[in-house]
Design goal:
Keywords: Signal. The protein is an alpha/beta fold and 543 residues long. It has 8 helices and 25 strands. The longest helix has 15 residues, at 94-108.
Length: 543
């Protein structure tokens, strides 16, 4: 999903959708984790509500967030598609919206005691105020501790996370260099063989210019970003492309439309030289529609009697933790029975009770039956299993959140995970998306650990790491190979996995100029990192 959900700029990171990176984090819960609906405040009106008593700012003195909920500068009217009830919005002020953010953050933010309290009346932009309501501490490696704080318009959130529909061209970009001389290529098509795209546009095709602006050294960043990540259907932008291995530059015009992504794009069985049957799944998105596709994929590989699995998560930034749990069970099978997939911990104000749902804090189990996130007909159906003792995972710094939870959850029940690619993004955290006044806010609310109590991978899982920590995995560092299609047995990361299966080592796999990739991370105009998530309103915790 990636920055299809957003346009914040990230530097040196990977993302989906715009030239901004999206990294996703952990989460748990199920569709039954439905919080109590906030009591109605009446239908939206045009009479401004009086200022709540005691609402004047006093540093480190907080009223309950319920005091300010749905007091909006621009109240919505009609039916809320997330709840089926009328919107509870009432006319309020910018300070009301900011006060809700301030109190909500103090109540549920994982590191609430690391927020510097600032007067909400001093901000005339709620998004700018929200940007301050987080920790600014660093991880052991020096990265921002909270790189996953972001917002998205609620209407856009709901339309994209349920079905994977976004506005674009049906392809995903990889920003290989964000600073001049910049370089961007096509990472993959949302649907291979998409007849609406010119034949020159395949994985690895290099972008030379956008609407007449040179991508490598052009100074008009807005034109580059706006063309690469259009906002509206019908937008038309002119590109120059050069195919891999060609010196010819071709000009094409792309028209943005509503595109439905395919979260499970390739499923195949590869037979090694020794005759070993190896399954391959390209899994790009933990959105709701992935549930049925993953069930079909595992059923197909089970029927093929695969002996090993290569799970390609290099472009998967996370989403529904429940889907991660289902897939982990389908890989490992009976060894997971009775074990937690992920244990959840909120801040120290909530040692026993989930502050969003009001229910006792519980672990996310390895789901052995389908939840029916989209297809109610699947609900309760037993999941197929491969019962494998190990899995090969192809990763990048776009592998984030729920994808990392698959790795961590499996390792918690002693499934061997062999990592091939690059260090993952490092997000053992998650949140419930919280809507207020038409904006959905993502603020880290909990951390997650596996059945062995491990969750300390804020700097990512490292292939063939040398720090001797539980975040160092067996495997090897292999750059992304844009000269071959994903799922091609000659593609560098897949080839390394196949060689490892045969020989116990990755072998001498060379990747030419393409070694680093930033999937759809916007050309940076600020240094912000945002996560990729997927959920229905605030019913399900997401990673």
């Amino acid at each position: 999903m990636g920055t299809r959900f957003r346009k914040l700029a990230l530097q040196g990171m990977m993302a989906f959708g715009t030239l901004a990176l999206i990294a996703c984090g952990s989460g748990g819960g199920s569709g039954d984790d439905t919080p109590e609906r906030t009591s109605a405040m009446g239908t939206a009106g045009n009479v401004e509500l009086p200022t709540p008593a005691g609402a004047s700012w006093v540093e480190n003195n907080f009223l309950p967030s319920s005091t300010f909920v749905a007091r909006c500068v621009s109240p919505r009217t009609g039916t809320d598609p997330a709840t089926g009830y009328e919107y509870i919005d009432q006319l309020g002020t910018r300070v009301d919206e900011n006060n809700w953010l301030r109190s909500m953050s103090n109540e549920v933010y994982l590191w609430y005691d690391e927020i510097t309290d600032k007067d909400p009346a001093s901000f005339d932009d709620s998004l700018a105020y929200f940007d301050q309501l987080k920790t600014f501490k660093k991880t052991p490696s020096g990265r921002d501790k909270d790189r996953f704080h972001y917002t998205i318009p609620t209407s856009e959130w709901l339309s994209q996370t349920e079905s994977g529909v976004y506005v674009g061209y049906g392809l995903q970009w990889a920003l290989l260099s964000s600073e001049p001389p910049r370089k961007a290529v096509v990472a993959y098509l949302d649907e291979e063989g998409n007849e609406s795209l010119p034949g020159i546009i395949t994985r690895g095709a290099e972008v030379i210019s956008v609407d007449g602006v040179d991508l490598a050294n052009g100074e008009d960043i807005d034109t580059l970003n706006n063309g690469l990540w259009p906002e509206s259907e019908g937008e038309s932008h002119t590109f120059e492309f050069r195919q891999v291995g060609s010196s010819t530059i071709e000009k094409v015009t792309l028209v943005a439309s509503a595109v439905k992504s395919d979260p499970v794009q390739f499923v195949k069985t590869e037979v090694t030289g020794s005759g070993r049957r190896v399954g391959y799944i390209l899994f790009n998105d933990h959105i709701a529609t992935a549930e049925a596709e993953l069930i079909n994929a595992v059923t197909q590989l089970d029927t093929a009697s695969v002996e090993d699995l290569v799970l390609d998560l290099r472009y998967n930034g996370g989403g529904y933790l429940d889907i991660a749990s289902e897939l982990a069970y389908m890989i490992a099978g009976t060894v997971t029975i009775g074990q937690p997939f992920e244990r959840t911990k909120f801040n120290n104000k909530h040692p026993e009770t989930n502050p969003i749902t009001g229910k006792p804090i519980d672990s996310t189990p390895f789901h052995t039956s389908a939840l029916g996130l989209i297809d109610e007909g699947l609900k309760g159906a037993p999941l197929p299993t491969l019962n494998l003792p190990r899995v090969f995972v192809l990763t990048s710094e776009n592998t984030c959140s729920a994808s990392e939870a698959i790795i961590n959850g499996l390792r918690g029940v002693d499934i061997e995970v062999i990592q091939i690619g690059e260090t993952t993004c490092g997000k053992p955290y998650g949140f419930y998306p919280l809507d207020n006044c038409g904006t959905t806010y993502f603020t880290i609310q909990f951390s997650g650990v596996n059945a062995k109590g491990f969750g300390d991978y804020s700097d990512g899982f490292v292939p063939n790491g040398t720090d001797n920590t539980a975040a160092d995995l067996p495997g090897c560092h292999i750059g992304d190979d844009f000269y071959h299609l994903l799922g091609d047995a000659n593609e560098a990361r897949f080839a390394a996995a196949l060689n490892y299966i045969e020989t116990g080592e990755c072998g001498d796999i060379a990747v030419s100029a393409f070694s680093e990739s930033g999937i759809n991370s916007r050309i940076p105009i600020s240094n912000v990192q945002v996560p990729k998530e997927a959920s229905r309103s605030n019913r399900i915790m997401v990673r």
